[in-house]
Design goal:
By secondary structure, the chain is α+β, with helices and mostly antiparallel strands. It has one domain: 2,3-Dihydroxybiphenyl 1,2-Dioxygenase, domain 1. Helix content is about 25%, strand content about 35%. The chain contains 4 helices and 11 strands, in the order E-H-E-E-E-E-E-H-E-H-E-E-E-H-E.
Length: about 180
């Protein structure tokens, strides 16, 4: 547990082929089921202060209490994921901390000198922000708001993983507007 941010709740892996990655994680590692969204509806996306329209595919599953996120970029929009790939890397790109008090945690982190690089929203009260904290691959820090439907979806994904028997290894993302 981080004495600054609480528990790491998510490990984010950037991959070239999300379908192959889901197959590997579910078949070889036994992690699943995967909740897959071929085009995540990101609103108010910004990278280095500039707005863009990313097309990212994401799959989420839990291994115990920790969520695993697989990310594949589908367009060439500037992002920390694209930077990671262009540096010749794949695999663990970030760790995420979840918060129900996004504004207070964001203020605290920026006051400590964390510099925002990439941000956006997924659903109501589902803001996220990535900081310029990469000192080696996999150390980028994401702060993810879970006060709204995104948090309910994360709970549903964790519940689905408990006692998962390997059936239906890939499932569609729940509709955030109905959570």
């Amino acid at each position: 547990m981080s004495r600054f941010l609480g528990e790491i709740r998510q490990l984010g892996y950037v991959v070239h082929d999300i379908e192959a990655a889901m197959d590997y994680w579910s078949t070889t590692l036994g992690v699943g089921p995967w909740f897959y969204n071929p085009k995540v509806p990101i609103r108010n996306y910004r990278y280095n202060g500039q707005p863009h329209e990313p097309h990212n595919s994401v799959a989420l599953a839990n291994s115990g209490y920790v969520q695993v996120e697989l990310i594949q970029t589908r367009n060439d929009v500037p992002s920390m994921y694209r930077d990671f790939l262009q540096a010749g890397r794949t695999g663990l790109q970030h760790v995420a901390y979840w918060t129900a008090d996004y504004d207070a945690d964001l203020a605290r982190l920026t006051a400590q000198g964390f510099k925002p690089v990439m941000s956006g929203e997924v659903g109501e009260r589902g803001r996220f922000i990535y900081f310029d904290t990469e000192y080696h691959p996999g150390t980028v820090i994401e702060l993810s708001e879970v006060a709204g439907p995104k948090g309910k979806m994360f709970d549903l994904i964790r519940s689905a993983s408990e006692g998962w028997d390997g059936s239906e290894p890939v499932r569609p993302f729940p509709d955030l507007s109905k959570l």
